[in-house]
């Protein structure tokens, strides 16, 4: 995989990595992991919400009347 960054992004990433005492690759991998974990949680919450609505639809319909 090739990741193409703008010059500004590369400079900012380099500075961040230096401040944290990590390589640029380590910083990027950490960011990707955080992104994937956050979106995985979003998908799980959505799945659970759909299940709850399906399960309680009769009650919700009665309450809406």
Automatic annotation (TrEMBL):
Superkingdom as given in the UniProt entry: Bacteria
InterPro entries named among the record's database cross-references: FitA-like_RHH (IPR053853), Ribbon_hlx_hlx (IPR010985)
Family matches, as Gene3D superfamilies: Nonribosomal peptide synthetase, condensation domain (3.30.559.30)
Domain (Antitoxin FitA-like ribbon-helix-helix): residue spans on this chain: 5-29
Alphabetical list of SUPFAM superfamilies matching this protein: Ribbon-helix-helix
One Pfam assignment: FitA-like_RHH
Name under which the protein is recorded: Antitoxin FitA-like ribbon-helix-helix domain-containing protein
Species this chain originates from: Streptosporangium fragile
Origin organism lineage: Bacteria, Bacillati, Actinomycetota, Actinomycetes, Streptosporangiales
């Amino acid at each position: 995989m090739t990741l193409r960054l703008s010059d500004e992004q590369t400079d900012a990433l380099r500075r961040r990595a230096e401040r944290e005492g990590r390589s640029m690759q380590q910083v990027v991998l950490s960011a990707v992991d955080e992104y994937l974990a956050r979106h995985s949680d979003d998908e799980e919450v959505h799945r659970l919400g759909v299940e709850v609505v399906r399960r309680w639809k009769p009650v919700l319909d009665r309450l809406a009347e």
